[in-house]
Amino acid sequence: MPPPLTFEYNPLSYAYPDDESDKELFLQASGTIANHLRAVLLYWVNMVFSDGEEVWQVVRLDQRDNVHKYVYPDLIVVDGCEREYNETFSLGMFSRDQREAVLECADDVEYDERSSEEGQCLRWMAQLLERMMEEELVECAVVDAIRDVVPLP
Length: 153
Fold this sequence. Notes:
Strand order of the largest sheet: 6-3-2-1-7
Strand content: 25-35%
Number of helices: 5
Number of strands: 7
Radius of gyration: 15 Å
Structural class: alpha+beta
Order of helices and strands: HEEEEEEHEHHH
Low-confidence stretches: none
């Protein structure tokens, strides 16, 4: 069962909800500059439009109004070439049940919502990946390959 809803109204979550199909799960790290704190998120694609735009369901620790928050569901529309501008890693194909398990893992990762520490999102993602390995949702070799490129604590 996915975590309780924690979002402000987002019409995308009603128009393009997740479905029962298997989907590829990605980790994306923004930018490609070394030694720079990078924004990281997990996502899968819920819809692809004819113009190449995609609706992504994202899993991330977000900072809004100086407060960190894990928001579920969190859907965004992006240009399909977004992957070219950022480091993107495939975590493999995930069933609906496996994606819901990822959401449950994300909901379980603790964080300090009032912290202004810049590295908190990277630390949260590192802990999420550790939980996903514990639950056998992702292989250790995949996480090690990500850690070789993305400065996760």
